[in-house]
Write a structure and sequence with these properties.
This protein has 23 helices and 20 strands. The strands form five sheets. A seven-stranded mixed β-sheet has the order 12-13-14-11-10-16-17, with helices on both faces. The chain has a six-stranded mixed β-sheet with strand order 7-6-5-8-9-19, with helices on both faces. The termini are far apart. The protein is α/β, with parallel strands linked by helices.
Length: 649
C-alpha cells in the first residue's frame, strides 16, 4: 500500500518494486516476486485493492466505539437495500380452500368398519370421523396411463428448461409454503389426524429445508462431473453426465400427505423430470388443495401444466403406475406391498427405489444426558402418534440410568393430551388408518402376556370420537415379544434394559429392519456404538437428524428396502447416468496400432502383453522392460498367409 501511494501512476513492471524492495517492510518482498510473474495491470489492480482495504482499516481504527457501531448499522442498512434491489423476483401464488372444503359435510360421519368402495375413496377426519367432502373417484388403470402420457409430453419440454427456471420454480414453491403454513398444516391435520405442531415439523420445515438445499446446491450435483481417464488414456477427458430419467412414478403413504408429495416433486422437477404420484387412499382429500397449489406454481414460472400428475385410487391404480410406462418408480410403504411393486416392475424392467419402513433403535448409554435424550425419546415415539417411517420403536437403556430414564419419561407421558388435531393444547392426535389402533392393541396384549409391564396407556377408549390409541409406555420388554419384531406405527415407547454397549449393538441389529438408528452418550462412545449398527442412517445425540440434513440420502437395509431418495444420491437417482469420453489434447487422437488392426498381425498378442508391462508394471524397471518388449514385438516378422482357405508357403 505504501508503495502504491509512493507512485500511484507507475506500473509495477517499471522496476519500481525491485528498486524499493530493500527500503520497504519484508511484506513488500512479495511484490518483488510477483513483479516477475504477474502481468503489470493485474499487479496494479491488486495494489489498489490493498490500498483501499488499508484505508478502510485505518478509518475504522480512528473511530470510537459508538462511531464504529453507527457505521456498521449504516453499512448493514445499505447492504439490505442492495439485496432488496438485486433480489430475484419470485412469483406469489394464492390458492385458497373452497367453501366446500372448509365446510366439509356437516352431520355426515364415517362408520368404522365400513369397507371402502371399489371405485370411490371416502374422505373423513380420523379424529372426528366427520366426512371432509364427497367420496372421490378412484382412478382406473386406463386413467393412470393417460396421466403418464400427459406427463411424458410435458417432460419433453421441461427437460430443455434451464437451471435458472427450475430454481425459480423451487423458490415459488418455497414462497407458497412460507406464506401458507397455516392452511397447509390444517389440511394435513384434518386428513391425517396429526396436531399442528407435528405438521409443522414433518410437513413444512423439512420441505423448506429441501427447497433451500436444492436452490443452493442442486445444480452443482447435476452438472457434468469430471472423472479420471486412466493411465493408457491420459490424453482423454472423461466425465459423467446426468440426464433426466423422464417420467418418475411415486407411490407415497398417508402419514405426511403434504411432504410425501412435495418431497419427490421438488427433486424430480429440478432434475428435469415429470412426476406421476399416487397418494394413499387414506389421505386423498388433502391432495385436492395441494394439487391446485402445484398447478399454480407451475403456471407462475411458465412450466408445463401437466408436468405433475396426481393419481387417486387403490391397487389397480398403483399397479398401472408401475407398469403403465413410467421410467422409474419410488415406493414408500410396507414390506409386503413393496414386494408386489418389485414383481410388477420386473415385467417391464422398471427400476424401483423401495423405502419400506423401519423399527429404529434408540440407544441410551450410561453416560448419556437424560435432559437431552428423554425429550427426544418422547418425540421419537409419540410425534404424529408414532406414525413415522423413521420413528423410534425400540428403546435400549443402560441399567445404570434405566430407572431415572423411565421416571422422567413417565412424568411427561402422564401429562400428554390426546384429541382432535385442531383442538387447542393437543399433543397426540388420531391414527390415520382405520384398523391401525386394533393392530397396535394386539402387539400390546402380546407383550403384556409375555411379561412386559404397562406403565401407561395400553387400551383403546371405545368412547373416543375418532380413531385413537393412547400414548403407551412399556417396560421389562424383551425380544420374545412381537412388539420388538414387527413395525408398530403407533404411539408406543417400549423400553429394554441393557447391561453393556455390546448388548445394545447385538439387540439393535437383531431385527429384520434397518432404516434409521439413534445413539445417545459421550461422543466417542456413541460414535463407536453407532458405527456397528446395521442401518441405513445413524444419528448421534439427536433424533432423526439425518432427514433434516437434506444433502444426505434416505433409505435403509434389509427389509427396510434398498436404493435411496433425498440427498445427492437421491437427486442423481432422478437421472440416467451417462459416461462420456472425448479427446482432451488437440492434435492427439486414438488410432488402433497396426499390429492390432484386422486382420491382426502375428505380433498382436506379444504387443498387448508389452503394453501391460509398460503401463501397469509395479516399478520403473518393469515399465522399461515393457517398452523393450513392445519394440521387440514390433520386430517379429509376420508369416505370409494365403487367403482364407489357403495353405502356408
Amino acid at each position: 500500500a505504501d508503495l502504491h501511494r509512493a507512485a500511484p501512476h507507475a506500473l509495477p513492471s517499471s522496476g519500481l518494486v525491485s528498486k524499493r524492495a530493500n527500503a520497504m517492510p519484508n511484506s513488500v518482498a512479495v511484490f518483488a516476486a510477483l513483479d516477475e510473474l504477474v502481468p503489470p495491470q493485474a499487479l496494479l489492480a491488486l495494489s489498489k485493492v490493498i490500498v483501499s482495504i488499508s484505508d478502510l482499516v485505518a478509518f475504522a481504527q480512528a473511530q470510537d466505539t459508538m462511531s464504529r457501531i453507527g457505521h456498521l448499522i449504516v453499512f448493514g442498512f445499505v447492504y439490505a437495500i442492495y439485496r432488496l434491489i438485486t433480489h430475484e423476483w419470485v412469483p406469489q401464488v394464492d390458492v385458497e380452500l373452497t367453501k366446500e372444503e372448509k365446510a366439509g359435510l356437516p352431520g355426515k360421519r364415517w362408520k368404522p368398519g365400513t369397507p371402502f368402495p371399489k371405485d370411490l375413496i371416502p374422505c373423513y377426519d380420523p379424529g372426528t370421523l366427520e366426512m371432509l367432502g364427497p367420496d372421490m373417484p378412484a382412478d382406473n388403470a386406463d386413467q393412470v396411463r393417460v396421466k403418464i402420457e400427459r406427463a411424458r409430453i410435458a417432460q419433453k419440454k421441461w427437460a430443455k428448461s434451464s437451471f435458472k427456471q427450475r430454481r425459480l420454480l423451487i423458490k415459488t414453491i418455497q414462497r407458497f409454503v412460507l406464506e401458507n403454513q397455516d392452511t397447509i398444516c390444517k389440511v394435513s391435520a384434518r386428513d391425517s389426524g396429526k396436531p399442528l405442531v407435528d405438521a409443522a415439523f414433518g410437513e413444512v420445515i423439512v420441505t423448506l429445508e429441501k427447497c433451500k438445499w436444492l436452490i443452493k446446491e442442486g445444480e452443482k450435483w447435476l452438472k457434468p462431473e469430471k472423472r479420471s481417464s486412466g493411465l493408457m488414456m491420459f490424453y482423454k477427458n472423461a466425465r459423467v453426465e446426468y440426464h433426466p430419467v423422464g417420467v418418475m412414478g411415486a407411490i407415497v403413504p398417508w402419514n405426511y400427505p403434504f411432504h410425501n408429495v412435495f418431497n419427490p416433486l421438488l427433486a424430480n422437477v429440478f432434475a428435469g423430470n415429470a412426476l406421476v404420484v399416487k397418494v394413499s387412499e387414506y389421505a386423498s382429500w388433502s391432495s385436492l388443495y395441494y394439487g391446485r397449489a402445484i398447478k399454480a406454481c407451475l403456471a407462475a414460472v411458465g412450466a408445463p401444466e401437466d408436468l405433475v400428475q396426481i393419481v387417486h385410487g387403490y391397487g389397480e391404480a398403483g399397479n398401472a403406475l408401475v407398469t403403465g410406462g413410467t421410467d422409474k418408480v419410488v415406493f414408500v410403504g410396507s414390506t409386503g406391498v413393496g414386494r408386489m411393486v418389485m414383481k410388477a416392475a420386473a415385467d417391464t424392467l422398471t427400476p424401483v427405489v423401495l423405502e419400506l419402513g423401519g423399527k429404529d433403535p434408540f440407544i441410551v448409554l450410561e453416560d448419556a444426558s437424560l435432559s437431552q435424550c428423554v425429550p427426544m425419546a418422547l418425540r421419537g415415539a409419540f410425534q404424529s402418534c408414532g406414525q413415522n417411517c423413521a420413528g423410534a420403536e425400540r428403546f435400549y437403556v443402560h441399567e445404570k440410568i434405566h430407572d431415572k430414564f423411565v421416571a422422567r419419561v413417565m412424568k411427561a407421558a402422564n401429562q400428554l393430551r390426546q384429541g382432535w388435531a385442531l383442538a387447542p393444547g393437543v399433543d397426540c392426535g388420531a391414527m390415520c388408518m382405520p384398523n391401525q389402533a386394533a393392530y397396535v392393541q394386539s402387539l400390546i396384549d402380546d407383550a403384556v402376556a409375555k411379561g412386559a409391564k404397562l406403565e401407561c396407556g395400553g387400551a383403546i377408549d371405545e368412547d373416543a370420537p375418532g380413531q385413537f390409541y393412547p400414548p403407551t409406555v412399556l417396560t421389562n420388554v424383551n425380544h420374545s415379544m412381537k412388539i420388538m419384531k414387527e413395525e408398530v406405527f403407533g404411539p408406543v415407547l417400549s423400553i429394554v434394559k441393557i447391561r453393556s454397549d455390546e448388548e445394545a449393538v447385538a439387540l439393535a441389529n437383531e431385527c429384520d429392519f434397518g432404516l434409521g438408528s439413534n445413539v445417545f452418550g459421550s461422543r466417542r462412545r456413541a460414535l463407536k456404538v453407532g458405527s456397528q449398527l446395521n442401518a441405513g442412517m445413524t444419528t448421534i445425540n439427536d433424533f432423526c437428524a439425518t432427514y433434516m440434513a437434506q444433502s444426505l440420502p434416505f433409505g435403509g437395509v434389509k427389509e427396510s428396502g434398498f436404493d435411496r431418495f433425498a440427498g445427492i444420491e437421491g437427486l442423481r437417482g432422478c437421472c440416467n447416468v451417462k459416461s462420456v469420453v472425448v479427446d482432451g489434447i488437440p492434435g492427439i487422437r486414438t488410432d488402433i496400432p497396426p499390429p492390432l488392426q484386422y486382420p491382426v498381425q502375428h505380433c498382436a498378442f506379444p504387443f498387448c502383453k508389452a503394453l501391460c508391462h509398460m503401463f501397469f508394471g509395479l516399478n520403473i524397471l518393469e515399465n522399461a522392460r515393457g517398452l523393450f518388449m513392445l519394440v521387440s514385438a514390433m520386430m517379429i516378422p509376420t508369416p505370409k498367409v494365403l487367403l482364407k482357405g489357403g495353405k502356408k508357403d
